[in-house]
Design brief:
- This protein starts with a helix and ends with a strand.
- The protein has 2 domains: about 325 residues, no CATH class; about 90 residues, Immunoglobulin-like, CATH 2.60.40.
- Strands 1, 2, 5, 6, 8, 9, 10, 11 and 12 form a 9-stranded mixed beta sheet that branches. Strands 4-3-7-13 form a 4-stranded antiparallel beta sheet. Strands 14-15-18-17 form a 4-stranded antiparallel beta sheet, with no helix packed on it.
- The N terminus is likely disordered.
- It contains 12 helices and 20 strands.
- The longest helix has 15 residues.
- A hairpin with a 2-residue loop joins strand 19 and strand 20.
- With about 425 residues, the chain is of the alpha+beta class.
Length: about 425
């Protein structure tokens, strides 16, 4: 059915379109709005990135684009016919698209709602900025990056997308691109060439996308009761990293400032389509994109009804306001949150008894594994603890405990797992 409709559409255009088109519909044009309200934000974030030091000595100042770039030029380049060579676009259609000097397919109006200037940024820099805090001792500020936090090590933007902010996802294959190009009224086209282009557009597996979303900082989400809901395991790991990275000799009266979110734009022409209405991102690609798996009827999307896989994509910083740090929060407040998060940490595997050994697993992050864990109940003893390597997006890490009832001791309905950290006593009650 899709093939018949496309060929019929192409045939109609080939017979009835005028030779010249001097008035292009605005829905096919990328416009410059004159909106420069985000320029201060772009400069502020670039400055912050340049100040961040990483363990590997990476100069993130080089990983965020050296200068602002035109949104119109980026999108124009994305939709340039040279990226759709596999589609065998007729020459007149190709010329018409290039002549617009700012072509975009119909149905992508939200592309014109973005500021005029954006800045290229690497996925590494995105994660760095969103895990960066400022420590203040009352007289000076020192920047720190929480690179031992579990969310830093496996940062997946799909888990931190702001669902309350406008976002969009547009995707096109050859057929969608060709149809939009023909809508420019390019004049009378050769029917044989049109049939060839139509057939090739249906055979080709080429696909592209462009998307926009706002991504919360995991650190902000952990402490502000805003943003996204984090697991208690992630909260524990973030707080531990925050305390360990404190650059001052004491944590008395030390305050932390935490950034909130980044607005980003992603684009790629390196996709392949198949057939079931989802977008998938191969390998580590999903780590840098908030759409790890996307239906094409997503809000603002131009539905294509195909599945796509993308090997890579470009990321751009859009932020419409300065990356402002939140109110200062004292480290002692974070420590109180650590006690609460440990008390409520998720159980991966409920207790089970095999040959007298009671086994259970908790969602405890790797940076907490080395603590000296004990069983508070005198009738039980801890035999071993083992780090879990879990291939599960819900539980990417964990710690398994084996305990047993001491000889000639009465059993209990629960035990309490404890660990001392700094001056804190962390506890988790396990019901047997």
């Amino acid at each position: 059915m899709k093939k018949l409709l496309l060929i019929a559409f192409l045939f109609t255009l080939s017979c009835g379109a005028p030779e010249e088109n001097n008035l292009i519909s605005p829905e096919y044009i990328i416009v410059e709005s004159g909106d420069e309200s985000n320029l201060a934000a772009l400069d502020e974030i670039a400055k912050l990135v340049a100040e961040i030091n990483t363990e590997g000595g990476i100069d993130l100042g080089e990983l965020i684009g050296g200068k602002n770039v035109s949104r119109k030029k980026v999108i124009t380049a994305l939709f340039h016919p040279d990226n759709f060579k596999d589609c065998q676009i007729p020459e007149k259609v190709r010329e018409a698209i290039i002549k617009t000097k700012g072509f975009k397919p119909a149905g992508t109006d939200l592309l014109n709602n973005l500021p005029d200037k954006i800045r290229s940024i690497s996925g590494t820099a995105v994660s760095q900025v969103l895990h960066t805090v400022v420590y203040n001792n009352g007289t000076s500020d020192i920047i720190g990056t929480l690179n031992s936090a579990p969310t830093y090590r496996t940062f997946n933007t799909s888990e931190f997308k702001d669902e309350n902010k406008n976002s969009f996802y547009y995707s096109f294959d050859c057929a969608g691109y060709l149809n939009s190009g023909l809508s420019l009224e390019v004049g009378v086209l050769d029917v044989a060439n049109l049939k060839t282009s139509a057939a090739q557009s249906l055979r080709s597996d080429l696909s592209m996308f462009i998307a926009n979303a706002t991504i919360y900082s995991p650190v902000f989400s952990a402490f502000q009761n805003q943003g996204v809901n984090l697991s208690n395991g992630d909260k524990i790991g973030i707080i531990k990293s925050l305390i360990e990275n404190n650059p001052f000799d004491t944590d008395t009266n030390i305050e932390i400032k935490v950034g909130k979110a980044l607005e980003l734009l992603w684009a790629s022409t390196k996709g392949k389509k198949s057939s079931n209405g989802e977008a998938k991102f191969k390998g580590r690609a999903s780590v840098g994109l908030p759409f790890a798996s996307v239906k094409f009827d997503a809000k603002g999307g131009a539905s294509m009804g195909m599945e796509n896989e993308y090997e890579s994509f470009e990321t751009y910083l859009v932020n419409d306001k300065v990356y402002q740090f939140s109110r200062k929060i004292k480290i002692k407040d974070f420590k109180e949150q650590l006690i609460i998060a440990m008390r409520e940490v998720e159980i991966i595997n409920n207790p089970r008894t095999v040959d007298g050994i009671i086994e259970f697993a908790l969602y405890i992050p790797e940076n907490m594994h080395d603590l000296e864990w004990k069983i508070e109940n005198a009738n039980y003893e801890l035999i071993s603890k083992t780090a879990l390597n879990i291939d599960n997006s819900s539980f990417p890490y964990g710690l398994k405990f084996n305990i047993r009832l001491k000889p000639n001791k009465a059993s209990s309905t629960n035990v309490t797992l404890v660990a001392d950290y700094k001056e804190l006593k962390l506890k988790k009650v396990i019901y047997l």
